[in-house]
């Protein structure tokens, strides 16, 4: 490094300098995410490492210092104060360096500074912040300032400060936690300001007298992802220099295009996720003629537009990007679209467009890169020998009518990196070229068709593939070696057969979902090597044998030190139900500390339940061990499992009593579960996918399975709270404590040898929907408190020794099939039974009666019981995890600014990750 030249630039790539309205990106939202953001990929720290040395001070004439993107910061490392002493600096770029703590006011000494960039990464463990930015006013020559991502939320009068820097041309303060004061600020000195970026702050109102309306030379204004309510002020029409206006993701209502009557320079307009509530033709007519010829990008997604896409759309001849997703548009797509020769992206997902789409629609669209028509009942009638004039990168046709033939015209589209033709009614063989043509694809979803064929042995050469969703098709043959880049794979509900490969070849795999195939053989030990694995689902296959003996978890691991597996440290769900697996409870799970869901149901596992789970698996929420041969007693330690909310031990050989301390099961003890404390849920939350909790009803298991297959129940799993101990050899009394598990919705202890009375307080379980105590040796009267459980829709007390009057009135009598729920209790009386309570002797206790014979008889019937909640869990989980997966992928790709855009992505990207039938 020499001092002479006066410039030091050590910037790493991945950092764009200013947000610019000119871009060729297909989607404005994507662009927003990519540009001007610290592109820090997960787990990666780029460039130089270490500390900034004060020896820089020796460079007396240094005027240009660019260290952006180098990880010279870190937790507890502030921006060095001495930088404020390099007086000669005119350019200082410290963007994306992971600095922590307060911004040093010494920077205010750099009075020659023209450009200052302190942009901070929002998703990181460091937090650059400032409570006082008055030092900025000493930078009298400053032209561009970027403090995006720096927490400025405690500064009230930030506007007052920045207006003291009248030379500013570019001001970027996105994601700073800023709000605008409600008092008007009529004047400002910012007469040079051209770019104002306030993306993702906490601005909730746009006072018509705000200063920026008056800055007539502003070319670019970004207010998206704030909390602005109400009408868009007319003053916006006075900003005649505006070229780019981003207002997406606010709560604006009744947005009128007439407001833009003077906006003749507008070329980029984003209004997505606000309310326009108008017929699309009317809305488009409201723009002045000059806008029609100038506008290049228009995003009206999720604005409640109605009516048809007007055929006059073809007059908007400069449009390159048109986004109309998530509206209520009807009718056919006008042929005029085909005349919009500059079109690069056409995104119409989630409307009610019908009619047909043929090659004529795209005849002269040579630049088209994104075509997204997902979730419209539209017929794609493009002929299979048509050779498109364009080269798509993104092609989304999910839930359109594309089949029955495979869209062969896609063969030439070699640049595609995102392809979704799921649920498009395709009943065909997958063409051989598919896997080679799409070798550059990163996301493929062809799920929910009837596409058949074998997976090629060359699958591994799809070297860019990150997500492959082939679920619910007719694929046959073996699972081949997978691409090394692959993160998510779903081939569930196909007809794959044969064993799993000994080595999958995809070391980064996070989710592997292969349920409902005919895969046989054992689970290969390679699974132990998949250190990023989060979800592994091999359920409903023909797998046999013991689970792999991962070296972590083996007793003899000392000896094997040389080959210690990394361990599945990120595993959050392991789902293996309905196979023929055997052996003991898997020990290697001790090294999966975030495990949330474990489903080993319907296998041949045996031995005692482990006592270590509470210590090693603190987040375990769903433990489903139904239908195995586990024996021994329920470990006392299980009550330490504070997140446990569903425990299914049905149909095992578990004996002994229910352990004391049930009340410690906090997740079951909360009446209405609070969000956030459930790891699955918070993961889910972050994706912004809607929860449809109100709709959940699981009166009986049959219905659950049925309902579980509906998409809406995706998140229902997080609300299921239950205990199922049925069909074991448990005995003793039902502990009183059970009445403190207020969250319980399902309690089934039938087919055991429980004795004693039904706890009087059972009526405290106010959320209980299904209670089955049948086939036990319970005696005494039915507690009247049961009648207080208004949610109860399934009750079975049959085959016990209960006696006395059946509580009358209210709920219990209205349950369907009410007589059979008391059957086999010879001393019960009163309606709905025919036995009247007035007969002498019937109210006595007769608990000495032995039901053993009867039980044996009915046990035989119960063994055939196959349906159950586990089915639902599994179905739900997959739908969910696929969504999560998809967003995580996006998250990884565009890490920096996604947070506020999530909800929108959830809508527009909804199309892609769907399973279900
Ligand atoms: C730089 O700024 C700080 C605080 O703003 C001030 O105390 C200090 O005297 C200044 N240093 C020089 C060398 O001007
Ligand atoms: C920003 O700072 C405020 C006040 O210190 C704090 O409450 C808030 O959580 C911070 N915001 C972020 C995103 O860290
Ligand atoms: C404009 O700038 C001058 C100094 O350049 C300052 O005195 C004045 O207060 C500023 N006016 C406003 C409204 O900020
Ligand atoms: C727009 O500009 C005109 C002319 O300068 C002015 O009379 C009017 O008040 C402005 N409108 C708003 C809402 O600021
Ligand atoms: C959408 O617009 C219609 C009128 O066109 C209105 O009745 C409806 O409430 C709007 N929907 C939403 C979600 O704002
Ligand atoms: C309780 O479990 C038994 C055996 O597993 C099952 O047959 C019965 O249907 C369950 N009861 C309810 C209400 O689901
Ligand atoms: C209660 O369980 C018994 C035995 O399984 C069954 O015959 C009866 O139909 C069940 N009653 C209800 C209401 O489910």
Automatic annotation (TrEMBL):
<dbReference type="InterPro" id="IPR003591">
    <property type="entry name" value="Leu-rich_rpt_typical-subtyp"/>
</dbReference>
<keyword id="KW-0325">Glycoprotein</keyword>
<dbReference type="Pfam" id="PF13516">
    <property type="entry name" value="LRR_6"/>
</dbReference>
<dbReference type="InterPro" id="IPR032675">
    <property type="entry name" value="LRR_dom_sf"/>
</dbReference>
<dbReference type="GO" id="GO:0005886">
    <property type="term" value="C:plasma membrane"/>
</dbReference>
<keyword id="KW-1003">Cell membrane</keyword>
<keyword id="KW-0732">Signal</keyword>
<protein>
    <submittedName>
        <fullName>Uncharacterized protein</fullName>
    </submittedName>
</protein>
<keyword id="KW-0433">Leucine-rich repeat</keyword>
<keyword id="KW-0812">Transmembrane</keyword>
<dbReference type="InterPro" id="IPR046956">
    <property type="entry name" value="RLP23-like"/>
</dbReference>
<dbReference type="InterPro" id="IPR001611">
    <property type="entry name" value="Leu-rich_rpt"/>
</dbReference>
<keyword id="KW-0472">Membrane</keyword>
<dbReference type="Pfam" id="PF13855">
    <property type="entry name" value="LRR_8"/>
</dbReference>
<keyword id="KW-0677">Repeat</keyword>
<feature type="transmembrane region" description="Helical">
    <location>
        <begin position="857"/>
        <end position="879"/>
    </location>
</feature>
<comment type="similarity">
    <text>Belongs to the RLP family.</text>
</comment>
<keyword id="KW-1133">Transmembrane helix</keyword>
<dbReference type="Pfam" id="PF00560">
    <property type="entry name" value="LRR_1"/>
</dbReference>
């Amino acid at each position: 490094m020499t001092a002479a030249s006066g410039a030091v630039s050590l910037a790493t790539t991945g950092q764009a300098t200013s947000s610019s309205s000119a871009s060729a990106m297909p989607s404005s939202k994507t662009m927003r995410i990519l540009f001007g953001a610290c592109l820090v990929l997960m787990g990666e720290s780029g460039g130089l490492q270490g500390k900034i040395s004060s020896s820089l001070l020796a460079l007396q004439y240094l005027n240009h210092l660019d260290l952006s993107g180098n990880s010279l910061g870190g937790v507890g490392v502030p921006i060095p104060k001495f930088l404020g002493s390099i007086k000669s600096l005119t350019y200082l770029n410290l963007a994306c360096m992971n600095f922590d703590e307060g911004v040093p006011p010494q920077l205010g000494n750099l009075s020659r500074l023209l450009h200052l960039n302190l942009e901070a990464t929002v998703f990181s463990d460091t937090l650059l912040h400032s409570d006082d930015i008055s030092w900025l006013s000493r930078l009298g020559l400053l032209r561009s300032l970027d403090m995006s991502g720096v927490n400025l939320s405690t500064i009230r009068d930030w506007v007052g400060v920045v207006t003291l820097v009248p030379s500013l041309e570019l001001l970027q303060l996105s994601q700073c936690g800023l709000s605008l004061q409600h008092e008007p600020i009529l004047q400002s000195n910012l007469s040079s300001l051209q770019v104002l970026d306030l993306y993702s702050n906490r601005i909730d109102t746009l006072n018509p007298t705000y200063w920026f309306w008056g800055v007539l030379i502003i070319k670019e204004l970004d207010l998206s992802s704030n909390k602005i309510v109400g009408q868009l002020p007319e003053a916006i029409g006075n900003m005649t220099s505006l070229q780019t206006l981003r207002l997406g993701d606010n709560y604006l209502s009744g947005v009128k295009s007439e407001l833009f009557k003077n906006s003749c320079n507008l070329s980029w307009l984003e209004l997505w996720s606000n309310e326009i509530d108008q017929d699309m033709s009317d809305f488009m007519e409201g723009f002045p003629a000059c806008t029609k010829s100038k506008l290049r990008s228009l995003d009206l997604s999720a604005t409640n537009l109605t009516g048809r896409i007007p055929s006059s759309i073809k007059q908007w001849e400069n449009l390159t990007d048109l986004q109309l997703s998530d509206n209520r548009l009807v009718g056919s797509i006008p042929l005029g679209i085909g005349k919009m020769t500059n079109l690069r992206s056409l995104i119409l997902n989630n409307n009610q467009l019908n009619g047909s789409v043929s090659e004529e629609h795209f005849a002269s669209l040579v630049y088209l890169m994104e075509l997204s028509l997902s979730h419209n009942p539209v017929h794609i009638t493009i002929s299979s020998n048509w050779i498109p004039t364009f080269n798509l990168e993104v092609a989304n046709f999910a839930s359109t009518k594309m089949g029955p033939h495979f869209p062969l015209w896609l063969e030439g589209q070699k640049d595609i990196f995102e392809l979704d033709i799921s649920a498009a009614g395709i009943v065909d063989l997958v063409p051989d070229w598919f896997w080679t043509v799409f070798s550059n694809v990163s996301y493929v979803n062809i799920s929910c068709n009837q596409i058949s064929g074998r997976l090629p042995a060359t699958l591994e050469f799809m070297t860019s593939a990150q997500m492959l969703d082939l679920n619910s098709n007719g694929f046959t043959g073996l699972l081949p070696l997978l691409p090394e880049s692959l993160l998510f794979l779903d081939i569930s509900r196909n007809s794959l057969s044969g064993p799993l490969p000994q080595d999958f070849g995809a070391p980064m795999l996070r989710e592997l979902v292969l349920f409902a195939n005919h895969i046989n053989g054992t689970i290969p030990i390679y699974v132990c090597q998949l250190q990023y694995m989060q979800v592994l689902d091999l359920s409903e296959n023909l797998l046999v044998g013991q689970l792999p003996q991962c070296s972590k978890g083996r007793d003899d691991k000392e000896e094997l030190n040389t080959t210690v597996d990394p361990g599945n440290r990120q595993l959050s769900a392991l789902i293996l139900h309905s196979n023929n697996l055997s052996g003991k409870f898997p020990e290697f799970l001790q090294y999966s500390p975030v495990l949330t869901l474990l489903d080993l149901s319907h296998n041949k596992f045996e031995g005692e339940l482990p006592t270590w789970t509470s210590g090693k698996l603190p987040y375990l929420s769903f433990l489903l061990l139904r239908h195995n041969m586990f024996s021994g007693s329920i470990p006392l330690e299980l009550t330490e499992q504070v997140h446990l909310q569903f425990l299914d031990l049905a149909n095992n050989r578990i004996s002994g009593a229910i352990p004391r301390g049930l009340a410690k099961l906090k997740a079951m003890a909360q009446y209405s579960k609070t969000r956030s404390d459930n790891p699955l849920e918070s993961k889910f939350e972050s994706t912004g996918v809607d929860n449809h909790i109100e709709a959940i009803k699981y009166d009986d298991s049959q219905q659950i399975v049925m309902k579980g297959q509906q998409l809406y129940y995706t998140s229902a799993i997080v609300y299921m709270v239950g205990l199922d101990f049925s069909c074991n050899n448990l005995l003793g009394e039902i502990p009183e404590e059970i009445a403190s598990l207020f969250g319980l919705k399902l309690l089934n202890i039938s087919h055991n040898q429980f004795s004693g009375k039904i706890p009087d307080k059972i009526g405290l379980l106010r959320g209980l929907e299904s209670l089955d105590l049948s086939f036990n040796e319970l005696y005494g009267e039915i507690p009247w408190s049961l009648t207080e459980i208004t949610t109860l829709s399934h009750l079975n007390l049959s085959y016990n020794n209960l006696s006395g009057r059946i509580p009358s009135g209210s709920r219990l009598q209205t349950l369907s099939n009410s007589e059979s729920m008391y059957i086999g209790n010879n001393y019960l009386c009163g309606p709905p039974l025919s036995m009247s309570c007035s007969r002498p002797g019937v109210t006595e206790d007769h608990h000495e009666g032995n039901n053993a014979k009867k039980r044996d008889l009915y046990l035989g019937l119960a063994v055939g019981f196959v349906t159950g909640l586990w089915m639902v869990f599994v179905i739900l989980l997959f739908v969910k995890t696929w969504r999560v997966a998809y967003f995580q992928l996006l998250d990884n790709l565009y890490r920096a600014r996604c947070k506020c855009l999530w909800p929108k992505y959830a809508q527009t990207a909804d199309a892609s990750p769907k399973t279900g039938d």
